[in-house]
Design goal:
Length: 127
């Protein structure tokens, strides 16, 4: 009898680590997000889909909001920064993707607060 080895979680962690390094996220952020992903199968599935396709699956919804909605919400917040002629690392696509996953994890814990923030147009300075 052979041993079956499922490397999917290892590959997901490697992708997250590489993405975090590219996006300038520290190891603490990456570990916290990995913990969120491992503890939430639906969020993990969204992440694996993103790793494979570089787009969101959008099957996980909280109060009607999907990963794409959270990503676009963040882009809208950062447009203010871009209009000022600044383009910090916090505005790159991969940083916004990682932030969207972290925001979705937090939104699952406190949907009322996040829906209020999204619908009022308040940015990361309020998160």
């Amino acid at each position: 009898m052979g041993i079956l080895y499922d490397a999917r979680k290892l590959k997901a962690l490697e992708f997250l680590t590489a993405l975090g390094e590219y996006a300038g996220k520290d190891a603490e952020f990456t570990q916290q997000l990995w913990t969120e992903l491992i503890n939430d199968g639906r969020l993990y599935d969204e992440f694996v889909y993103y790793a494979d396709n570089h787009t969101f699956l959008d099957e996980l919804k909280i109060r009607g909001y999907s990963m794409s909605d959270i990503y676009v919400w963040q882009m809208d917040k950062y447009n203010i920064v871009r209009e000022l002629g600044k383009n910090p690392g916090s505005c790159n696509k991969e940083t916004l993707v990682l932030n969207a996953f972290m925001e979705m994890a937090a939104m699952k814990r406190d949907p009322d607060e996040y829906v209020k923030r999204i619908e009022s147009g308040k940015g990361n300075d309020r998160l």
